Write a sequence for this structure.
């Protein structure tokens, strides 16, 4: 299950699930994340203050006044991983995306680079089977995968100073959505009118959680404007 | 509850935000802990005005706010290393002393001029401010626009209400603090320590690093000899916590502070030990710091001693007769 556990400073455990980044590795990360979330809620374990799942790591942060590395490491060592499986919790979230001007900032250069038409690119992007690897960096930003291999691109050589909030970008096997206006180097293909991060939603401020499945729905500029008004 | 007593913000200061212990359990949504940068000064400021340690305070950096009290009287204190004065209604001026509490009345002003050889200062009022909590915290995260004031720093003209309108039986209390602080920052080796050449590893603990101006509540950019990465200058993006020292491709380390991004993709060479967070946060740009390597059990022991020393300081608060 976990390949290696070490300390990250004196307030976190760094759980490494191996170098291969794919859905299988990430599912293991998310299963442990969900299991620990449950255990914390049931008060079976104390002192954990944050869990940070990513592609192939889970960072468990704790309050050093309450617990320490050794106690939590022992807890992890005693988990029976056969019992950890939460596949049924994966839900499907629909994300509307408009691929038109003025949102598709890099679509033209992408088509040139990949030697396919805009329409071919969009159809390929729409046909993917996607899930959320992790959320973070900036609040609520989802890292979605996996893109079809023939759509892989590198980061922009010169990152943009400002990427508008809602922009949908791609790099390598991943796709993300900028939840705030932010600097960024991803290739921008469109924009969603969906508010991906809402700080007023106390229970679930981010629309997408690690492990969610994603269905991308293509919308026109008119539909975008209609949805954006809400 | 009637809250008539309020503070008028005449001048907001450079970066004044409400902070407390921070907010927890939200990393998987991309929300960092935030909270007071110098946790020790935050705890002491609450203790001096007899508040619970979790009460929100006003943190300021360099120049602080100019504040006028309306419709009541109040008990406040300022902690850190700060030059400030109290301008009484009758124009009398009292030179302020840190780590001491004061009684002020309607129309009195507090003018927080500047922090001395340090970055952050803390202003606490007995009873605390009337602030809306987000996820059980009043800490302001200006990047994610979370916290009081819609996640923004203080502005001119803001009105901040106090929970207590009237102080009865005011007693002046004082605390003598004598920190002897050096520029040595103790760290634990990070998960990507072996990404760096043997020579860079050695020099990391031998040479000085300069704190640059590119430093805020999110992170501290250092300038040093330029570490040589012999493996890869990018890693798979993964979780970040406060105190992580990342090294981007240019070889100059960045230390993540309270408002860190929760995910990052640069190799982590080391992590600041909890015992030295507060000390580090108060270091001003152009200070040279030096890293010292310690192991986990040492770090845990040092942190416990540090917490005990803060409790001891708080227990030593004396009444002024």
């Amino acid at each position: 299950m976990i390949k290696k556990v070490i300390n990250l400073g004196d307030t976190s455990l760094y759980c490494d699930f191996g170098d291969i980044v794919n859905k299988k590795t990430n599912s293991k990360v998310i299963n442990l994340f969900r299991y620990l979330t449950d255990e914390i809620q049931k008060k079976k374990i104390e002192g954990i203050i944050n869990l940070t799942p990513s592609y192939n790591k889970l960072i468990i942060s704790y309050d050093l006044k309450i617990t320490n590395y050794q106690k939590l490491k022992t807890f992890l060592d005693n988990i029976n991983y056969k019992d950890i499986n939460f596949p049924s919790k994966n839900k499907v979230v629909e994300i509307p995306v408009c691929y038109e001007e003025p949102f598709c900032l890099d679509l033209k250069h992408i088509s040139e680079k990949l030697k396919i038409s805009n329409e071919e690119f969009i159809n390929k992007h729409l046909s993917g089977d996607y899930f959320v690897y992790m959320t973070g960096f900036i609040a609520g930003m989802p890292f979605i995968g996996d893109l079809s291999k023939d759509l892989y691109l590198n980061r922009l050589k010169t990152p943009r100073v400002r990427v508008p909030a809602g922009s949908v970008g791609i790099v390598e096997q991943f796709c993300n959505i900028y939840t705030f206006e932010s600097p960024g180097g991803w290739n921008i293909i469109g924009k969603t009118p969906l508010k991906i991060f809402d700080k007023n939603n106390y229970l679930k401020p981010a629309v997408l959680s690690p492990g969610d499945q994603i269905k991308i729905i293509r919308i026109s500029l008119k539909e975008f404007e209609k949805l954006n008004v809400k | 509850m009637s809250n008539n007593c309020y503070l008028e913000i005449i001048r907001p200061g450079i970066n004044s935000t409400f902070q407390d212990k921070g907010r927890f359990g939200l990393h998987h949504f991309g929300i960092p802990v935030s909270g007071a940068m110098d946790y020790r000064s935050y705890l002491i400021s609450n203790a001096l005005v007899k508040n619970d340690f979790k009460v929100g305070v006003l943190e300021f950096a360099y120049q602080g706010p100019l504040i006028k009290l309306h419709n009541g009287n109040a008990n406040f204190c300022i902690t850190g290393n700060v030059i400030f004065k109290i301008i009484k209604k009758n124009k009398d001026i009292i030179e302020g002393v840190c780590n001491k509490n004061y009684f002020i009345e309607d129309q009195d002003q507090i003018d927080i001029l500047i922090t001395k050889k340090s970055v952050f200062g803390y202003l606490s009022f007995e009873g605390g401010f009337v602030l809306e909590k987000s996820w059980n915290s009043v800490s302001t995260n200006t990047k994610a626009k979370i916290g009081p004031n819609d996640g923004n720093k203080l502005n001119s003209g803001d009105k901040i209400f106090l929970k207590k309108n009237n102080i009865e039986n005011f007693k002046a209390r004082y605390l003598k603090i004598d920190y002897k602080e050096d520029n040595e920052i103790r760290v634990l080796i990070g998960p990507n320590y072996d990404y760096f050449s043997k020579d860079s590893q050695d020099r990391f603990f031998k040479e000085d690093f300069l704190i640059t101006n590119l430093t805020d509540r999110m992170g501290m950019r250092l300038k040093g000899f330029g570490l040589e990465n012999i493996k890869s200058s990018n890693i798979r993006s993964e979780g970040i916590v406060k105190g992580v020292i990342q090294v981007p491709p240019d070889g100059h380390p960045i230390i993540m502070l309270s408002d860190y991004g929760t995910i990052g993709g640069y190799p982590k060479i080391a992590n600041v030990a909890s015992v030295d967070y507060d000390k580090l946060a108060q270091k001003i740009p152009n200070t040279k710091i030096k890293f010292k390597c310690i192991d986990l059990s040492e770090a845990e022991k040092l942190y416990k001693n540090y917490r005990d020393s803060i409790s001891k300081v708080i227990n030593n608060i004396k009444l002024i007769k």
Remarks:
- DSSP finds four helices and 22 strands in chain B.
- The first helix of chain B runs from residue 39 to 48.
- The longest strand of chain B covers residues 109-115.
